[in-house]
Fold:
Amino acid sequence: MNEEPTVSFDQAFGALRQFTRTRRSTSRATEFCELCSAGLIHDHAHLIELASRQILCACDACAMLFDGMERSKYKRVARSAQYLVNFVMTDGQWESLLIPINMAYFFRSSAENRMIALYPSPAGAVESLLPLEAWNEIADDNPVLHAMRPDIEALLVNRVGHAYGMTRAEYYIAPIDECYKLVGLIRANWRGLSGGAEVWAEIGRFFTELRSKAEPVSGGLYA
Structure:
């Protein structure tokens, strides 16, 4: 399998460090719109620069400029998440995607006109070449994936607990900045060879929070 670190991750990770700073202090504006320099509220919008996949913090006014805009350099990142109940994916289908760990996210890049598969690692997001036939089979079994918006939404898969027979696999259509947030917390908290207790606690908190705010929707064709 060919793998290569994504060149845009360090840029995206800069935005993730801003997420962390925001948690520490919500009493005053510590972040600023990266387009107009206006002060930002805690729950502010994000834009994605399509060519670099860089995440930018934005005020509502600047974010609204890019809502649904065609042929733009930026897109406004989606805000809502969906928890896909009855999602159809066999262990064999997962293995056919050639992802070396049990966690990954998948999105369509309009700049590159292709599906992209990334998985988190202690060094950041790593791209894995996605066999198109394998993806198409899963998408045909789960029509909700055909409606996933390019660049700003991703299928986020967590099969870590499932792989050890502890929990069910989880599938989400998540805003793309949530995926980068997950990669960032793994990179920031990973220790040693196995990651350590702190990083797994952070991963657990991330998915608990995502599940709590996601809307349950049917994912599979035969659900």
